[in-house]
Every structure is written in structure tokens, then in C-alpha cells.
Amino acid sequence: MSRLERWSKALISLPPAAYLILFFAVPSLMMLLASFRYTGEYGGLAPWYYIEDGGITLDLTLENWARLFESTIYLNLLVKSLTYALATTLICVLMAYPVALMIAGAHKRHRDLLLLLVILPFWSNFLVRIYAWMIIFSPQGALTMAANKLTGLLGLEPISFMFSPIAVIVCLVYVHLPFMILPLYANLEKHDTRLLDAAQDLGANRRQRFWLITWPQSLPGIYAGAVLVFIPSLGIFAIPDLLGGTNGIMIGNVIKQQFVEARDWPFGSVLSLVLTAITVLLVLLAARFGQPKGAGNA
Amino acid sequence: MHRSKALYGVAGLVYLFLYLPLVVVVVFSFNDSKLNAEWVGFTWKWYEKLFNNREMLTAAANSVIIATASALIATVLGTFAGVALHRFRQKWLSTLVLGPIAMPDILIGVSLLLMFILFNVTLGTVSIILAHVSFCIGFVALAVQSRMAGMDQSLIEAARDLGATPWQGFCKITLPLLMPGIIAGAMMAFTLSIDDFVITFFTAGVGSSTLPLEIYSMVKIAVTPEVNAVSTLLMLLTLVLITALSRFAPNALRS
Predict the structure, then answer these.
(1) Composition of chain A by helix, strand, coil, percent to 5
(2) What is the pTM of this model?
(3) Which of residues 119-148 of B touch A (CB under 8 A)?
């Protein structure tokens, strides 16, 4: 490499790299350090070292990490959050598949329009989409009224959708569905349709053609979509906050609570790092099994 | 391909699921009742109330200022990053640039909150912009990178053969060819910034509210149909931005 090339390489890479080191990498490292510090007297963080008698004493602790395992509260919360995220991902697969299949099979002229129709709701504001479900699930709303007419007839207890895990999962699915449809469509579109024709000639019925040909080929698309749905739904706090009530909270709510209300930053950092570890693990897994470019879908 | 009628039926239901909630919001923004429960009659009054709501208007102005500044900075840095990602394929750089896209928003939000407070950065418009730029760079970089990938390299070589310096080649050939990607990235950054709630929530201080933060506190405290009105207007704005985006860069939306 010539000197000129090396210089231009540095000049081009440096500005964005410097910015992201300062505003992405450094804060992440500070959170790692914060997880070993004591909580300050008025919340926040205590100093991580003291200067005494001319020497420096480190004042770090493993207490915050121990707290994670002290009771089952946080582990249960983690399991619950993972369950919600997994349920969301599975429902998204079920709902996305027919749509992606239809778009991939549609005439070229209609594909762009059908895709745009999937993306449009995704681009409308996140809170607006949550708010829409608050209206639909409201206790005075038509849905709850109708459901309770039915439960009344059957002699059952009246039900409430608002502040239930169902409301949280439905909204999680709603918000993340396009993230599953798009990579799945991108995958299905590339399938060689001659394989299906060949299978048909050889006597495979519709079900066999799907399970033996389309489904296995579409797995990378599903992995990519699963990462894009699973990771953001795991960390979310606004949806459980507005639709979940006390029983519907997820790990994101507790992280937010530790940083904003309790001001227990060290423990908030511990929970955030657990979430980071899960995220990194999932991204690495997906890079192995699916398309590594998946993360770029938006 | 051979597609059954049942498939179209199910897919149609999913589209219905995608649009019904939005339709409900728009319809109720014209409903003459304080409760979002049943239709009473048509009214414009929630829009009138909205345009007399000083806090809401200040927040909207704030959102536009923040989104414009974030988009401008992120576009410059993201363009550099996109070019670098395509040319040099350094793994550490792509991890750094694409990392914020893969991370859950809440983690970016709390870690920046932590850093801003430890470094005594006053939370406000500036801290929000700094945060927004860091998650927008990756999206701009992707738009620029995909444009680079589709570019005909022989044009650059031809320019070189005709005596252009690398700098001239970049300014006269590469940059104009990249423009659609850059514009698409800028618009994406603007939309992401104006819509962002989570990262803004953690990096905003007193008196630097944005529209999503206003909506959140309104919805959290008491549901009023004013929220329907502002939501409808936001949807309209998004529709305009998306239409413009699909005009400039048809492929940007599904990169």
C-alpha cells in the first residue's frame, strides 16, 4: 500500500470511527466499569478509587453482580422477557410467512407496492403504534365489550385485555412484524422455482413441496428475521410500560427503573450488560446460521 | 409459482392487522367524544386544541431542529463510513458502525446517559443530537455502501486514465454517483431521529422535550383525543417523507 493510500484510508475512516468510539464504545466500557462500582450516597456512582496517604486504592465490588443471583426475581424476569420475545418471534414467523410467500409469488409490477404497504406502518411513529393498541384494548372499547358479552353468556368472569401479557405480545408482534417479512421475502424471492416444478412433475403434493423444498431453503431468511425481531423486543420498555401493567413488565422496564427512578446505576449497568451479552450471543449465532447482513435491514 | 387462495386470504388478514390500528387512530382523531370508545360525531376540535397547545408546538419545533442537525452530521460521517466500509473492509470499523444498529435502543440510551452525567454534559438539545448521530451513522453508511457496491468502477479508472487526480475523480465522478444514496441516507436519518423515543428519553433533560416524549407523557398520564390528532399528523408527515424517499432511492427502503 502506498503512503498516499494509507493516508486516505486514515482520513476517510477516522472521522466516523472517532465519533463512534466516543459515543458508542466508550459509554459501553463505562457501563462495564460502573457495574463494579458502589452506588453513590445520593444514587448514581461512588468514586472507583481513593487517594489515601499518597497511594491509590481501588474501590470496586462484585456485589452488584451477586445481587443478580441473590433472589430468583431477576432471573425469573429474564426468563419471562426471553419468553415474551420468543413468543413474539414465533408469531411473527407464522404471520410473516404467508405475506412473504404472496409477495414473492406476485407479479413483478405489484411487488413494490405490496412491500411498501408492509413498510409504511413501520415508519409511522413507534408511540403512535403503541397508542393505537391502547385504544383497541381500552376497557370501554368495542373489542373488550364484545369479548365480555361472550364471556357473560358463557357465565365466565369478565376479561380485560388492557394491562395483560396478551396486550404486550400483540403489540410487540405489531411493531416488529415488518422486520420478519422483509428478510423472509428477500430470501424467498431468490428461490429457484424450477425446483418446485420438478417436484410437482415427480408427484410431490403441495404440502410436500413446501416442507421439503421451500421451508428448508428459507431458514436463513427466518434466522435473519428472528434476530431483528427477538433483540429489539427483548429490550423494549415502552410497550410493557403502557400496555402491560404491573404483571407485564420486562427486563427493559427494570433497567429504565434502575437508571431513572431508583438511580442505582451499578445494578442498572449489571442488567444492561446481561442484555448486551444476550444480544452479542444472538448476533454471533445468526451470523453463523443466517445471513450476517440481516442486521442492516430497516 | 403456484399459490392457493387460502394464502391470499391469510396474507390479506395480516395486512388488515397492520393497518387497522392506524385507521382507528385517524378515525378517532375526528371523534366528538373525550373517550376513545364509540363514535359520537365529526369534529375538528382536537386539531384546534393541538394548534393551541404551546408545549406540543415547542416539542415539535425541537424535534425538527434535532432531526435536522442529527441528519446533517450523521450524513457527513455516515458517507465517510460508507465509503470506508466498501473500500477497506475493516472488520473493526464495520463492528463500530453497525453495532449501534444491532444493539437494543435502551442500551445505547442508558450508556450515553451514564457517560453524559459522569462527564458533566448538560442534558438537553445538544446531548440528544450527539446521541441521535451515533445511531444514525450506521444507517447512512449502509445506504452509501450499497450505492458504492452498485457503482461501475471502470468510470473511475477511465477518469484516472484521462489524467484525473484521485481527489478530482472522487469529486467529479464518485460523489455525484453516490448522491442518491447520500440523500436517501440523510432522509432516513431525519426520519429515525424525529421518530426516536427510547434514546431521546434517556438523553433529554428538563425543557428539551421532543414530540415523541410529549406523546409518551400525555398517553401515560391521561389519554386525550389530542394524541389521536398529533398521531394522524405525524403519520401524514411520514407518508410524505416515505413518498419522497421512494422517489429519490427506490432501493433504500429495503436495503
Answers:
(1) 75, 5, 20
(2) 0.89
(3) 130-131, 133-134, 137, 139, 141-142
